[in-house]
Amino acid sequence: GKKPASDDDDDDEDDEEEDEAPRGRRGANRKKLAKKRGGNDDEDESEDEPPKRKRGGAANKKKGGKAQDSDEEDSDVGKGKKGKKGGGKKGKKEEEEEETKGKKGDGKGKGKGKGKDDDKDKKKKKKKGDSSSDSNSNSSEEEESMSEGEMARLMEEVEEKKKLIANIRNKPWRMQRRLKLLKEAQEFVDKFEGALGKGKGRKWYAYKVMMTKVLMGLPYGSIPRKTVPRAEQDTAQDYSVLMDFNVSLASNLRPPAQTLPQACCTQPQGEHPLRGYCKYSVLFYGYYNDQRTVGVLKFRLPLSYLMVGIGTFGYSLMLVIRTMAKNADVGGGDGEDSDFTFAWKMFTSWDYLIGNAETADNKYASITTSFKESIVDEQENQKDENIHLRRFLRVLANFLITCSLGGSGYLIYFVVKRSQEFATRDDLSWYEKNEMEIVMSLLGLVCPPLFETIAELEDYHPRIALKWQLGRIFALFLGNLYTFLFALFDEVNTKLEEEQSIKNASIWAMKEYYANYSRLMNDSEATPPPMDPADVIRGPCWETAVGIEFVKLTVSDIQVSYLTILIGDFARAVIVRFLNYCWCWDLEAGFPSYGEFDISGNVLGLVFNQGMIWMGAFYAPGLVGINVLRLLSSMYYQCWAVMATNVPHERVFKASKSNNFYMGLLLLVLFLSLLPVVYTIMTLPPSFDCGPFSGKDKMFDIIMETIDLDLPAFMGTLFSYAANPGLIIPAVLLMVLAIYYLNSVSEAYQNSNMELKKKMKMARDEEKNRRNNADTTNQVMKDLEDLLPNRSLIPPAPPEPEKPPEQEPKPKPTKTKPGTAGKGVNLQKDVALASSNPNARGPVSRPPGPRGPGPGPGAGPGRGRGRGPPPR
Amino acid sequence: MILHRCVIVSILCKFRLHLKGFVIMCSAIKPSIQSICFSHAVFLSLQDCTFFTRKEILRLHGRYHELAPHLVPMDYTNEPDCKIPLALIVNMPELKENPFRNRIVESFSEDGMGNLSFNEFVDMFSVLSEMAPRELKAIYAFKIYDFNVDNYLCKEDLEKTLNKLTKEELTPEEVELVCEKTIEEADLDGDHKLSFADFENMISRAPDFLSTFHIRI
Question: Which segments show compositional bias classed as Basic and acidic residues (chain A) (predicted)?
């Protein structure tokens, strides 16, 4: 009696064996018949059918599967009788047998209702045995003709094999075995798939559909910004925004060549900063026009512009959230900080990607440091120190940092204001033109080291310190960006006013023209004024202006980061390396040393950069392209710099375990960059003569227009209902309530998780006590054993000496914290508590892994452990 | 042609690794291998059994051949039975710096001595590739860290691991402490050594395991 089955079960089994015997003999002769019956038993199983019969059928089927008998089961005492009597063929793997047997017992316990499921399980088990036994040739099956049940079974088997083929790469087997099994499975599938009439099935070839070119019709209606105005044509000689920095300002206000509408003289043209051809390129908002449909396919340009702009945000939001959720799932990162510090360090700290000797040396050093750190952490109890001084220093540090943050914010505000002043003047030096970008970049350069210095005062644990540092830099960047934005909005408002005046003036001029025209020609037919598109006076197009600011910011950011690397890292490295030969102290080990590669700072830079792109992409679609180029080039550039000039950070601390720290920052940045864009879309009127939304009051009017014009009428009413506040407010309310509900549910889960953890710990302690060291029937263990080199050469391992059952865990070494003594006491108490209630700990006594089916509630954790080693 | 492309791809891959040096990059550009013959069936089965595509298998074979040009025939149509000894494999740039290189190769060789046939060679890099699932990697990681091949990580194994990781720069007391703590943390069943279940339980929660237990070739 190896498995803890009740007497009842044993009796049943005996019956079963008795019953099985004759059937088995018969089955040996007329296998087909028996099989058929077995199959039928599966199909039309009824309530009153005795379970034995069913089981007999299953056993017979099993016989069919295992054509080749082996002597192995003879060694198994418990099964020997059954095996001989029934003449049933057993699987090679004892484990399968065990499980099947267990199943039987289970099924009996559970009653007939479960019978069918059980049977299926058995079938699967058998097939698994089939597929994993080496020398199985399916000869017996080949000869048979097909019956209904047979077909179904075969189909299932084929499916099973197919699954095996698909998953074989995930199996921890030797390659040789894998190839063999694969071959067998493939042969099997090929043979029987043909027999089942499935065939290979027709293959559908996918044809690549070429997109028909959307012919961009000539602009109609508003003049697109593709055309450079004549007034700017001779001064706009630069080709990129980059060159903007060097454009000399020699804008003589030329009167337009054809001074048709006199009103144009009122145009305050002097305020236009010269932006060059780029301003009218595809990079910016102004390039696109408000043509409702383009080409034969009726491509709706304005609508898609808006949709892409908003869709980008939606998509990014979804992506970030999904990644975060996945990370949280994988990391499982709640309060398990200290669970596996040393184990993780030991087994996951070496990066197998390292293939460079120098890097490897650095890695060794950093691993050693980190181990030493944790050792110190471990040994170090809470030190008594001057808590008041510490507090004072921390407050002081925070004060200083707040001051510098405020200062940098004010500086930016001041600079932006000044640049608006400069915009009205012509005699600007290079510095004055680019003051804003330079100041912003410099602040980004100077402040982080400053913060780091100040943070020394605080004396936090490095990980916490890193988080603070990152948070502060983040605040700095964000503050700067937002100051910049507010200043920009001021500018936008003035531009809007200016635009209003231009609009009025040109409308007046047009009216004048038409009045003159009809008076002179005596013709009421309206002909557009004979004017080259390049000569038309245009508004300032604030969207493009905003886009230009963002592009300038990005470009200057690129320049600064490249220059920093070149000077701060490369030049420094060169100096340190070569001056070291003739210097009084060791430069490499001493003061200047090489630059450290600051991972977290770089990641933060990426996050911030992404935010800028999100914000600017609506106004300058080309910014995305620029950014892609920048990221590509900077990857190679930084790669070179890191390899050539940097040393790794002395103490690498990840800011968080589950990578969600940075994702959280990214989410915050995304949200914050979403705000201004959505604000402009919702409130500010678009420019009247540029961009896809020209002529609309608000940008989102384009959606209304589409609904009205392109969709059937009832959709319009539907949307108007949907947009009703009466509907939206309840919807929002519902969502809030849903959030509340989900939140409380997750809390409940967390609680039960904690409870389970506690139970697991209890079970673990208990197991420590009554541990006997026999091997388990774990499939994975089997595989592992299988992977031992040259199994045939090694003599079969002697059964492990059983440990005395009440072996207490060894006394803890002296180095552990004093708190563990109390734990030891606790432990015993736990054990006492635990063993008094076996039912409670039953389900958690083993991980829910691949250990086969759980025992019934009464089975207890001892099952499957007391057996001897598998016969190998 | 294929090889040419392979070299380009491998260069690109390597560029992507910030940690990999140019040393490797240069060594990736080796004199060309003209043609490698495989039968179609071998390809298909190898593709099914590993996480590699046809191209990658070809490239791997190139590397394999490179290791011992006199041992490995170019023609693989009838699957010759040849093995490359451990000493040669361990010198691959991908493994050269790895403190566990000998263990890696040994765990993937059927004879346990580190002689790898091509199939085992492919198997090794397949398990270490990006695509392999965590469970599979965990099994082989366990085998790698199991120095004395008894299917348990006992203290001896941990000490060896630690000494390899730190180049023996920790004092014996520190090593002792770290091993004690490691066992204490991860040992679920209290037998003072880590069984695979313990190891898997521990490694399945490790945030860095997937990203570090990974070799790109």
Answer: 100-121, 762-773, 800-811
User: Which residue does chain A place closest to B81, by CA atoms?
Assistant: A176
Q: Is A187 on the interface with B (CB under 8 A)?
A: no
Which of B94, B110, B182 lies closest to A355 in CB terms? Answer: B94
Nearest to A809 among B143, B158, B190 (CB): B190
Q: Which residue has the tokens 């609508």?
A: A303
A341 and B111 within 8 Å at the Cβ level: the answer is: no
Encode A120-130: b = buried (16+ Cβ within 10 Å), e = exposed.
ebbbebbbbbb
A348:B135 CB<8 A: no
User: In sequence order, what are the beta bridge partners of B194?
Assistant: B153
Write out the two tokens for A585.
């102290």
What are the angstrom distances between the C-alpha of A416 and each of A436, A482, A544, A657?
6, 12, 18, 40
Task: Using CB atoms, pick whichever of B151, B165, B203 lies closest to residue A349.
Answer: B165
Residues 93-152 of B with CB under 8 A from A: 93-94, 96-100, 106-107, 109-113, 117, 119-120, 122-123, 126, 128, 132-133, 135-136, 139-143, 145, 149, 151
One-letter identity of residue A281 = S
- Measured CA distances, B84 to A144, A337, A454, B33, B147 (Å): 46, 44, 58, 18, 21
DSSP annotation string for A341-361: HHHHHHHHSS-TT---HHHHH
| pTM greater than 0.90 (yes/no) | no
Q: Which amino acid is at B20?
A: K
Q: Would the CB atoms of B180 and A813 count as touching at under 8 Å?
A: yes
B203 contacts in chain A (CB < 8 Å):
347-348
User: Cβ contact (<8 Å) for B49 and A183?
Assistant: no
- The H or E element spanning position B136 is helix B134-145
H-assigned helices in A30-174 = 31-43, 51-65, 72-75, 77-86, 94-110, 115-132, 139-142, 148-167
CA dihedral A803, A808, A811, A817 (to 10 degrees): 130
**Do the chains contact at A340 and B107, CB–CB below 8 Å?**
no
Burial tier of A380 (Cβ tally within 10 Å: 0-12, 13-18, 19+):
exposed
Give the A:B interface size as CB pairs under 8 Å. Answer: 239
Query: Going along B32-122, which residue ranges are E strands?
Result: 83-84, 116-117
| Closest of A317, A569, A274 to residue A445, by C-alpha | A569
ipTM of the complex: 0.80
Q: What is the block-wise mean pLDDT of chain A (872 residues), using blocks of 10 residues?
A: 42 42 42 42 41 42 41 40 41 41 41 42 43 42 60 85 82 81 83 58 35 29 46 43 35 32 34 51 73 74 86 91 80 54 85 83 83 76 66 87 88 81 73 77 82 82 78 83 81 83 79 73 59 64 83 85 86 84 76 76 84 87 90 90 76 60 86 88 81 80 81 83 88 96 94 88 71 52 67 49 44 40 41 42 45 42 43 43
Secondary structure letter of residue A294 according to DSSP? B
By CA distance, what is B95's nearest residue in A?
A355
Cβ-proximal residues to B129 (8 Å cutoff; 6+ apart), any chain: B51, B52, B214, B215, B216, B217
Positive or negative: CA dihedral B44, B47, B52, B53: positive
* Interface test mutation site (partner A, options B110, B139, B157, B216, max chain A beta carbons within 10 A): B110
Question: Is the CB of B49 inside 8 Å of chain A's CB atoms?
Answer: yes
User: Which token pair is A756?
Assistant: 């389970």
Pairing of strands A595-597, A646-648: parallel
Which residue among A643, A785, A809 sits closest to B151, beta carbon to beta carbon?
A785
Report the candidate in A283, A344, A330, A364 with the shortest Cα–Cα distance to residue A620. Answer: A283
Give every CB contact of residue A669 below 8 A, 6+ residues apart in sequence: A478, A607, A608, A610, A611, A614
